Amino acid sequence: MTEPENPQAVALEYDGKNAPRITATGSGATAQQIIEIAREHGVPLREDPDLLSLLSKLELGDEIPRALYVTVAHVIAWAYVLTGKQPK
After folding, report:
1. Distance CA 10, CA 52 (A)
2. Other CB atoms within 10 A of residue 31 CB
3. pTM of the predicted model as reported, rounded to 2 decimal places
């Protein structure tokens, strides 16, 4: 897989209780660092340009908006299945 010229990334944190929050966002070198750190820690990476576009408009620490709950829930479920983990 080739890396895009200007990568973009958004990282989410989900504590199992509250809505997921934006914990990192960036483009270019910053996005590459986010991606590399995620890989180093075994965090699943998912490419979804439409969701990325929406999430990248949020500020660090923001909870995702209700309109994205179902979409992000699918991504979180996918990550749980991929890593073999169970939600709390």
Report:
1. 7
2. 22
3. 0.83
